[in-house]
Design a protein that fits this description.
The structure is a homodimer. The first copy, chain A, has about 375 residues and is α/β, with parallel strands linked by helices. In chain A, about 35% of the residues lie in helices and about 25% in strands. In chain A, strand 8, helix 4 and strand 9 form a beta-alpha-beta unit.
Chain lengths: ~375, ~375
């Protein structure tokens, strides 16, 4: 009978494996590759079976599942959001995910997605900003200098041409860490004493804060004509970053409207507040920025399609670089209708062969 | 700085690890332990944050995610259902799952759930039958003799006292396989030429068929007074096993009504067709079987709570038996706000130590 061991094998990409992939490609190339995969998948938005993510909320945070599929490939991501975790020495956001074959349900790749999510979120921000920010943008404000911030900074540097970043975080050590991490990148990094100071004169404003509160980090008074606001941190019910007045005066773009209405900064607006889904802009079916003076907002919450792209990118990169190892997640059955048989000890022939192998390793005298 | 490596460690239970656990405990004890965990969790049904599962359907089958949580523990299961898989040499149902800490989101256990699901489904059927079948039941009909069937047979043997099982499958080889697998268990196994023949005179009828069609495997003419019908195989939209007339004349019990209305055999009935959730019976809030002559149906579809119990049971058993291995699913960060730092090559001191270790393994002359 056919053995299913190769058919049901899952390839595992550990946290260290993804570090190895990113270091072999370089972070700039990883961000660029990830943005290309995301853009390509958004161009075929209509091919996907989409769900709003499923969250289990507690007083400490949230754990979410984000499934999506096209006709050939299924992916999901597990991701948590626990704002107090850093006090325990743990990351705020941790993630992993699986890519599976729609035709037979085999989970083909299990990958870490903590590091990968930071790269895909930054790449997604860049994909949106390429369509929405002024093409001559060179200065960005970066509010929130935590775990995701360096990835945002480098995505906008390499993919948008941002040269100067004005930094603010309520934790000055976070800003100091970012400056240490990015000191050799060629970016001009300017720590600021307040959000107002950081935002003043910026072409692009990126907010990537972690507190699970209805914050108003950006107020209408801070907004200047022509700004693009990349609002990344307001991404679940009760967690916002923009004053409603910022939204009402801007062109607002979202990933997947049903999910963003619940989770995005637009949770503060009425259900008929007009937004545009980004795929429409990327496919040329809707306008992005319509004037030099217009204020645009990308109300980013992170959508399953981006993780689909991210898992595809990591799978393809891992294959090309021969990184990763097999994981026995699914039993390899001699007969697929005989799951019970998998419980049996090795068949007699195999057991005999094993016993003989052991015997032949022992000194001859032991057999006498 | 504190290293998070132990805090974020995921314990991995492979398919072989779960085989080792079940063989160490014995299958009877595994079924009994699993039933105890399920029963205990059903007794605190109100503690759980419940969702209907999220499925991505295709022409080939379905891939589902089943999340659930109480105040301390979160679990989800990934499971597929692909009726044509056996023709490809693959199991119809494959599964894995994760148990995580609600307080911080860390995925603590990643386990195979293909084998585990077969055990938990059989244990759940037994938990329901203990509350619903006639206590003097000794004869069961088992319709569908595929991957799940031996587990159902043994659960009813060990937990309900079933002594004789009458078998039918459209594939005679499946029945022959079951008889080989269970020939030393003390069960009296009688292969039958038809469903009618298998069901005649049975105290309990278990249907565990795989075809994704609206089948009518059990018709009203087959049903005898006092029977308990354990309907396991009708578990997604368009996949049923019982003629509606069987349901309309029986007391029907379900796991989680919102899910079973969509997926169970009761998808054929109107939205006001009366059903009882099983937890109400187990908690003494509703009656189970009310008369010797009553026909009862457990319209089982498999609910996330049972996988929560199953993952708890496997985690606790693995700990006790010291089975499993750590998996680097989540990066261990020196500073949780410094994900970017995880990309850096090893610090100089560690790199030097590693280089020295390599050098000391080389012959002395190589250093000359």
């Amino acid at each position: 009978m056919k053995n299913t061991s190769t058919l049901v094998q899952t390839q595992f990409l550990s946290a260290q494996d993804v570090v190895a992939i990113v270091n072999r490609l370089g972070l700039a190339e990883s961000l660029r590759g990830m943005a290309d995969y995301i853009h390509a998948d958004y161009l075929r938005w209509q091919d996907f079976d989409k769900h709003a993510r499923v969250g289990n909320h507690s007083e400490f945070g949230v754990i979410e599942l984000m499934p999506i599929a096209d006709a050939r490939t299924y992916t999901f991501k597990y991701v948590n959001g626990h704002p107090f975790n850093t006090r325990l020495g743990l990351p705020t956001v941790m993630a992993f995910g699986v890519l599976a074959n729609v035709a037979n349900g085999v989970p083909q790749v299990l990958s870490e997605l903590t590091l990968t999510t930071a790269i895909r979120t930054a790449a997604m921000s860049a994909v949106a900003a390429r369509a929405l920010a002024r093409p001559d943008s060179t200065r960005m404000a970066l509010i929130g200098n935590g775990a995701q911030s360096e990835f945002q900074a480098l995505a906008f540097h390499h993919l948008l041409g941002i040269q100067e970043i004005r930094l603010f975080d309520i934790d000055p050590q976070a800003t100091a860490k970012l400056m240490r991490n990015l000191c050799h990148t060629g970016l001009r990094l300017l720590p600021c004493a307040s959000v107002v100071e950081a935002v003043r004169g910026a072409d692009i404003v990126t907010t990537v804060t972690a507190d699970k509160i209805n914050a108003t980090i950006i107020t209408p008074a801070m907004v200047e004509p022509g700004m693009h606001i990349n609002a990344v941190g307001g991404d679940c019910p009760g967690k916002t970053e923009l004053h409603p007045g910022v939204l009402s005066q801007a062109g607002v773009f979202v990933e997947y409207e049903p999910q963003t209405r619940i989770e995005g900064d637009i949770q503060q607006m009425g259900p008929d507040f007009a937004v545009t889904e980004l795929w429409q802009v990327l496919q040329g079916q809707a306008a992005g920025r319509t004037a030099q003076e217009q204020v645009t907002v990308f109300d980013s919450v992170g959508f399953a399609l981006e993780d689909f792209s991210a898992l595809r990118f990591m799978r393809d990169s891992a294959r090309r670089l021969d990184i990763g190892q097999p994981l026995a997640l699914i039993p390899a059955l001699a007969n697929p209708k005989d799951l019970f048989g998998f419980l049996r000890p090795l068949p007699q022939a195999a057991a005999r062969a094993q016993a003989e192998a052991q015997r032949s390793n022992q000194p001859e005298t032991a057999l006498a």
